[in-house]
Amino acid sequence: MTQQTFSMDNAWRLMLVDMGIDADELLRRAELPRDLFSREAVKLPAPSFFRLWDALAEMFDDPELALKIGQALSTEHFSPPIFAALCSPCLSMAASRLSAFKRLVGPMRLIIEETDDLFCVAYEFLQPTVTPSPTFIEFELVFLVRLARIALREDIQPVRVVSTFAPFHSGFTDFFGVVPEKGEREMLFFSREDASKPFLTANESMWDFFEPTLRKRLSELDGSESTADRVMSCLYEQLPGGQTSIREVARSLGMSTRTLQRRLKQEETSFQELLSQCREQLARHYLQHSTMSGAEISFLLGFDEPNSFFRAFHAWTGQTPERVRAAYQHPN
User: Fold this and answer.
1) pLDDT per residue over 299-313, tens digit each?
2) Are residues 96 and 114 in contact, defined by beta-carbon separation less than 8 angstroms?
3) pTM above 0.85, yes or no
4) Alpha carbon of 1 to those of 108, 230, 247: distances in Å?
5) CA dist., res. 90 & res. 192, Å (int)
6) In this structure, what are the phi and psi dihedrals at residue 216, rounded to the nearest 5 degrees?
7) How far is CA 30 from CA 70, 129, 168, 219, 303, in A?
8) Which of 11, 30, 112, 202 sits at 20 to 30 Å (Cα–Cα) from 147?
9) What tens digit of pLDDT does each residue of 91-131 get?
10) By the 8 A CB rule, do 58 and 87 touch?
11) What is the spatial distance between Cα 194 and Cα 156, in angstroms, rounded to a whole number?
C-alpha cells in the first residue's frame, strides 16, 4: 500500500522569501529533499507535511510564529483554492468551498456546522494516527479569520475559538478577540450575521473560472492514491461512527462491493486486512493519547463487545491494551 500524499501549496515559496527563511536549512531540519521547493508539483505524506511545520517552529522558537505567518499573508500568497474562497459571496460560502478543496493544500478537511445563531467550522485531520504540528493548527485557525478580514475589509471576531492545543500565547487572544478554549478538536465559531456579510472580494465569474481546475486537481489527487489508501481514509472517518462494512466503504468510494474487492485483490490486500490494520493503528493512538477505557475504545473501533476487541488486540500485538498503554506512559 502506497502512502497517501497531499499537495503542498506553492505559496510556501513566497512565504519563505518574505519571512527571510533559509529554505535549505528548513528542509534539512525536516529531513526532506533539498530540491523540494524547486519542483513543479510537490506532494508530501502527512508525517512529512507536519515535520516541515515542526522544523519551521524549531528554527524560529517563537510562540507566536503561526500568528505572524497568518498576519503576513496577502493575496500574493494565495493559491487557487484560496482565491476561490475569496471570490465567494460570504464567509459561509467561502468555508463551504474550502471544505470541498482543502485537501489540495493539506491533510485535512473542514466540517461545516450551523445553528440558528452560529456558524461553526471544525477541522478534521485525514490521518488521525499522525499527530499534527501545533504550529500548523494555530496557523489554520488564524488563517480563516485573516481570510475573512481581508475579504470583508472589516475586523470581525469569532465568537469562540477551540483547540486541542489551547491555551495559546497571549498574542492569539489579541488577534481573535476571544480567549482560545481547550477542546477535543479545532473549531471556529462565528455569528450567523458575520458569516453572512457580503465579501467585498466576491466575484462569481472568477469562481466559475477556478472551479473546473480545482475539481480536476482534486480528481488527480484521488487518482494518485491506491484503492487501499482510499479505503483506509474512509475507515479512519467512518469507524468512530460504527460503519465498518465493506458495503458502506464501497458506497463512500462510489463503486460496487465487487469492484472494491477486485481492486484490493489486484493490490494484494483485502478489506478485512485493511480494517484490522486501521483498527490497530487507531487503538494504539487512543491508548497513547487518551484516557479512554478499553470498552470505550472497543466501541469507537466498531466492535460488538469489548472482549472481541481484547482478543483482536492480543492477536495484533501479543499484549493486552493495558500493557501497551503502560509502555507508552513509562518508556524504558
Assistant:
1) 888 898 999 999 999
2) no
3) no
4) 20, 10, 21
5) 11
6) -65, -45
7) 21, 19, 24, 29, 38
8) 30
9) 999 998 888 777 777 788 888 999 889 999 999 887 777 78
10) no
11) 7
Question: Residues near 215 by Cβ (< 8 Å), separated by ≥ 6?
Answer: none
Q: Are 313 and 287 within 8 A, CB to CB?
A: no
Sorted by where each starts, the structural domains of the chain and their CATH numbers stand as: 63-212 (no CATH), 226-329 (1.10.10.60)
Using alpha carbons, select from 292, 121, 253 the residue that is nearest to residue 192: 121
Question: Which three cell numbers mark 47?
Answer: 508525517
